[in-house]
From TrEMBL:
Name of a matching Pfam family: DUF6594
Signal peptide: none
Keywords: Membrane, Transmembrane, Transmembrane helix
Domain of life: Eukaryota
Protein name per the record: DUF6594 domain-containing protein
Membrane-spanning intervals of the chain: 216-235, 247-267, 273-292
Keyword rRNA-binding in record: no
UniProt key word Acetylation: no
InterPro entries: DUF6594
Organism taxonomic ancestry: Eukaryota, Fungi, Dikarya, Ascomycota, Pezizomycotina
Length: 296
């Protein structure tokens, strides 16, 4: 009687099923944080850029040494400072260095380096939130501690860039994350299972959309301060008949508003001038309407 050997399970099938299970949970979630939150791997991408940079730097050094070995007269301006360049004691022959293989490798590395730089720059302008804000995704990462979860940043691929995000909103992001970390760290101390249960056991997950909260709070605060800086000086000047006092009030308000706008809002120099000029124009209308007899 012949014996048959059992067919062993292909290597990695269990890991693939586990990975698919986690990806399926994240891709079919009901919350936008889980659906559109992806890790940016900032340190790993920077490390990749540094590796590329070092490889190109070695080739760049070889190219410069080969160019200096030609003993050509530098240009009159010598913008690169070639006449002050340091030459190596031993320089290989150009025929042994500048080869077609060398050129092909240089083109490949330069292309990869430029694409990686552009991609990283694009990634770093995207909106981010802490992995701690999404308890469902955090529960799937059992290899991270609570502090590491707090420090891990996810990208919101469904939102625009944060190039125009105000410093005030970023300040709110920071303290909202810190508050959630403080609250969940207290919760984890009293929970032996850690941050959350294993995916599938817990039905209700905790979320904190810091981007939305900071945006709403920032807009409301900006609107309230704008109203205060318009109403307050008008209310003060309405009870002051002296034009000198009114001019002092207008000047102080313009200086304070300009300082706050430049500090808490992300505006260009031209926009800063436009805001100050517009605000000054609004207040100056009230001062110009004061009758001359009121100054006596």
């Amino acid at each position: 009687m012949s014996t048959s050997t059992p067919i062993s399970e292909p290597l990695g099938r269990t890991d693939s099923v586990d990975a698919f299970r986690k990806c399926w949970i994240a891709s079919t979630a009901d919350n936008n944080l889980t659906l559109h939150g992806f890790r940016r791997f900032k340190t790993t991408q920077l490390l990749n850029l540094r590796f590329l940079e070092n490889e190109i730097a070695d080739m760049d050094h070889t190219i410069y040494q080969a160019g200096l070995s030609l003993d050509l007269s530098p240009s009159p301006a010598d913008r690169l400072g070639l006449q002050h360049g340091k030459r190596d004691a031993e320089v290989p022959k150009i025929n042994d260095v500048i080869t077609q293989e060398f050129i092909s490798k240089l083109r490949h590395l330069i292309k990869e380096y430029n694409e990686a730089l552009a991609a990283f720059n694009n990634i770093m302008t995207m909106e981010t939130f802490s992995l701690l804000d999404d308890e469902q995704q955090a529960s799937l990462r059992d290899d991270l501690s609570l502090y590491e979860v707090h420090k891990t940043r996810l990208l919101r691929v469904d939102l625009g860039t944060r190039s125009r995000t105000d410093p005030f909103q970023r300040w709110l992001h920071k303290y909202l994350r810190a508050f959630r970390y403080w609250r969940l760290s207290r919760k984890a101390k009293s929970n032996s299972e850690g941050l959350g249960s294993v995916a599938g056991r817990q039905q209700r997950w905790s979320y904190q959309n810091t981007i939305l909260i900071a945006e709403v709070v920032g807009r409301v605060t900006t609107a309230a301060l704008t109203a205060v800086f318009i109403i307050a000086p008008l209310a003060i000047m309405s009870h002051q008949s002296s034009k000198n006092i009114q001019l002092i009030v207008v000047s102080v308000c313009i200086i304070i508003l300009s300082f706050l706008v430049s500090l808490f809002l992300k505006v260009s120099s031209f926009e800063m001038m436009a805001v100050s000029a517009g605000y000054a124009a609004v207040l100056s209308v009230f001062v110009s309407n004061v009758p001359a007899s009121a100054e006596r």
